[in-house]
Amino acid sequence: MKAIIPVAGAGTKLRPHTYTQPKALMPMAGKTILAVIVDALLNEGIEEYIFIIGYLGDKIQDYVMRTYPGLRCTFVTQNDRRGTGHAIWLTKEAVKNDEVLIVFGDTICDFDVQSILKSKVSQIGIRRVDDPRSFGVAEVDDENNVLRVVEKPLIPKSNMAMVGVYKINETAQLFESLDTYLHNRADDDGEYHLTHALQTMIEKGIKFHAFKVNNWFDCGKKETLLETNATLLKSLAEKTSSPQFPDSVIIPPVNIGAGCKIENSIIGPSVSIGENTTVRSSIIQNSIIGSFAVLDEVVLKSSIIGSDAYIHGMSQSLNIGDNTDIDLG
User: Which stretches make up the Nucleotidyl transferase domain (predicted)?
Assistant: First the structure.
């Protein structure tokens, strides 16, 4: 069993942060998005990984090699962003017809990994959504057999969105379908979607089963990134104790990195702060703060502040990238 994790996207919805940092390396709850995914799979016994890198891919490769020394992994580069189908097709030589678990690098969700890995039928993770038009959609029967999958349908016949988790047993047929698809015309948006190849496999009689996931977070935008951070902090709250700082109030759950200096401030709830950050005379809640930042006399709520940022003055909700200097006084 091999895990394929596509992390080649540019993360345009998380700019300005993704101008300097890959989306998969955005911090949350003391980790990165990528580390949350990899750690969960390592805990379930998956030992071999294929990372599809592209935009700022050298940073992802360096991070993986530094954080997981000795990890059995292969890096495949997608130079042109031509969609998820094209990205998975690039892994053909690395997969070598082994069964695979595909987990998109901006997706965090809870599911029974072991039952999915042991399944003799290929699996597609789904979750009910209010408006499925922005997602790949799975149409399923009463026994959760997948009848049809469609990418971003204008008139959806199902509200079950595909969450970006797939367990594929028939990888030879997957790559055969992708080969055919990539030699034909791309979809109207100019990309080759994995959904299309999966539908081809279904039409050829390959059986897929849909499994429902819990706490699905598509970490591709600010709001869901903050929501995921808050949820992960709550899950870790019983395992960690809140640190103490001079003349400051820490309201859990929080995660404060090593080397931080916090004075005369109120921090929390739902706040993650990176290493070696300084906070003075500030109030911060439901926010993510990068490493080596300096916050002086600010009030922040539902904000994301990049590493090496400097902010002085009063504010309410900010989305500030790395190496930024702002004086709101």
Answer: 2-234
DSSP 64-96: HHHHSTT-EEEEEE--S---HHHHHHTTHHHHT
Q: Do both 284 and 175 map to the same domain?
A: no
CA pair distance 278, 37, nearest whole angstrom: 29
Residue 15: alpha-carbon gap to chain centroid: 15
pLDDT of 122:
97
The candidate with the shortest Cα–Cα distance to 72, out of 99, 45, 93, is 45
DSSP, res 100: E
Euclidean distance between CA atoms 170 and 201, whole angstroms: 9
* pLDDT (tens digit per residue) in 313-322: 865 555 555 5
Q: Which of 198-202, 217-221, 253-257 shows the lowest per-residue confidence on average (mean pLDDT)?
A: 217-221
Q: What is the mean pLDDT of the chain?
A: 85
Cβ(106)–Cβ(113) below 8 Å: no
The reply to whether 216 and 248 lie within a common domain is no
Domain identity same for 179 and 276: no
Residues near 170 by beta carbon (within 8 Å), at least 6 away in sequence:
122, 201, 206
Contacts 24+ apart (CB under 8 A), 257-262: 257/30, 257/291
Q: Which domain covers residue 29, as residue numbers?
A: 2-223
